[in-house]
Specification:
It is built from 11 helices and 11 strands. The chain is of the alpha/beta class. It folds into 2 domains: 24-124 and 288-303, 3-Layer(aba) Sandwich (Rossmann fold); 141-284, Rossmann fold (3-Layer(aba) Sandwich). The strands form 3 sheets. Strands 1-11-8-7-5-6 form a 6-stranded parallel beta sheet. It has a 3-stranded parallel beta sheet with strand order 3-2-4, sandwiched between helices. Helix 7 (172-181) links the parallel strand 5 and strand 6. 43% of the residues are buried. The model has no long low-confidence stretch (mean pLDDT 96). Bound molecules: NADP nicotinamide-adenine-dinucleotide phosphate. NADP nicotinamide-adenine-dinucleotide phosphate binds next to helix 11.
Amino acid sequence: MTARIIDGKARALRLTSEVAAGVAARVAAGKPPPGLAVVLVGDNPASHVYVRNKRRMTDTSGMRSFAHDLPATTSQADLLALIDALNVDPAVNGILVQLPLPPQIDADLVTERIDPLKDVDGFHPYNIGRLVLKRPTLRPCTPYGCMTLLKDTGEDLIGKHAVVIGQSNIVGRPMALELLMERCTVTICHSKTRDLPGTCRRGDILVCAMGRAGMITKDYVKPGATVVDVGMNKITDRAEFEKFFKGNEKREAAFAKNGSTLIGDVHPNAAEVAGKITPVPGGVGPLTIAMLMVNTVTAAKMRRGGKLKASA
Ligand SMILES: NC(=O)c1ccc[n+]([C@@H]2O[C@H](COP(=O)([O-])OP(=O)(O)OC[C@H]3O[C@@H](n4cnc5c(N)ncnc54)[C@H](OP(=O)(O)O)[C@@H]3O)[C@@H](O)[C@H]2O)c1
């Protein structure tokens, strides 16, 4: 069997054009365009790329983008003061502080300082709590994107056994809550899970979010399972590249050109066993940014007439 590829790029394009149409209709009706403030602290090269893409998508969707690029030496007090200002700025509907933050800043404190109704990353305890209670408002973007892709497959999720590898606050845990909300039976795995391959092989749905390049081989996959690969790992080493992509002409050409390639947490040979699979790149990644746009529109709708409403 060769797995059907779940095309996240195409899905994200459709979603962002729907968002853009919705924003245009809002503006035509005399409402202000939703505004998204993206705060970047420091010089992490990967963060720069993510932030650039988020800002570009905000502009493309017809929303207002507010850029705040701060030096790596920024104090925690200064960052919190900026968040306080954005919290009360009526033109700003969404606030995103790109992680990771420099060591002098407590990321949890920053997350909790953001107005929960402007928390478009969905990381604030208020928004995680709403997800726990099955009344989500602003949902963590990556798991929300994964759910969008899973629902698109047309597969009935009710009663399916879903296995999530990874229990981080931003991916694994909210992913498990999303699947539970869809009435899946959920198993969460982490670095101390015993018999990881055997546990994974019980999953009708297998979500991989560990940050371990190509670790999930076909031996972890139940035949016919739907595999969602959240991992994004950059390979620059030729020997490592060959371990995964030897003989893959398209990848070879890209590696020769860029000196690097992206691989998920799933090994290419998993596609021999899975029924459906998300690719890396072009799977979950594009959806994550699209869901950020969806959340920003949701946040703008919640702030109607200067009054806060906890449902859009
Ligand atoms: N596509 C996207 O838009 C997107 C968005 C966010 C993240 N990501 C990617 O998703 C991956 C995970 O991100 P994250 O922020 O959740 O990472 P994280 O905070 O480092 O968490 C990794 C999780 O994986 C578990 N883990 C690590 N090694 C393992 C192993 N050998 N066996 C079983 N479990 C293992 C860890 O277990 P313990 O808890 O026991 O340590 C932890 O729960 C990364 O590759 C990241 O780049 C992609």
